[in-house]
Design a protein that fits this description.
Helix content is 23%, strand content 51%. With 158 residues, it is an alpha+beta fold. The protein has a single domain, classed as Immunoglobulin-like. The protein has a 4-stranded antiparallel beta sheet with strand order 4-3-6-7, with helices on one face. A 3-stranded antiparallel beta sheet has the order 1-2-5, with no helix packed on it. It is elongated, with a radius of gyration of 21 Å.
Length: 158
């Protein structure tokens, strides 16, 4: 009787301890990455081809803390009016204390994957007429896997 009570109790406490350690270690490992400030500036069409277009997305990232911040992976997913446009991945970015960098992210969008209304917006370069979402993920590689911070930034139509 006593063993049947102790085994589930041990499993319960073990699970709680492992979850707490994962949370604490994860927050220690991510460090100052969680303090990065990101600003979604604009979206423009930089190139029109017969079967695709290239969208340029401008983003500013600022390190507000007083020490270097190293990010192992930056993932940016772009959406136009809720329609997925693509991903851009950057690796091993270091920002100095107080440094602000402006990135231009290039997204190649094939016309065959777009709705006619969205295609017209791109071909006419009316990017300010639609709503844009940029999902940003800043990741740090750790012994327990990649952990990080996610942001969902919006650029509303004007």
């Amino acid at each position: 009787m006593r063993k049947t009570f102790l085994v589930p109790l041990f499993l319960l406490f073990g699970t709680i301890i492992i979850a707490a350690m994962y949370f604490v270690v994860g927050n220690l490992m991510i460090g100052d990455v969680k303090n990065l400030e990101v600003k979604f500036i604009n979206v423009t069409v930089s190139k029109l081809e017969l079967d695709h277009a290239v969208l340029d997305v401008s983003v500013k990232i600022k390190n507000p803390v007083d020490k270097d911040v190293r990010v192992d992976i930056l993932r940016f997913s772009l959406y136009m009016n809720g329609t997925y446009m693509g991903d851009v991945n950057l690796e091993n970015v270091t920002l100095k204390p107080g440094q602000e960098i402006e990135l231009t992210l290039n997204y190649t969008v094939t016309y065959s994957s777009l709705d006619v209304k969205l295609l017209k917006v791109i071909v006419e370069n009316r990017t300010s007429a639609v709503s844009w979402n940029l999902v940003c993920r800043f990741g740090v590689n750790t012994p327990i896997g990649e952990i990080g911070k996610s942001l969902n930034l919006t650029l509303e139509s004007s």
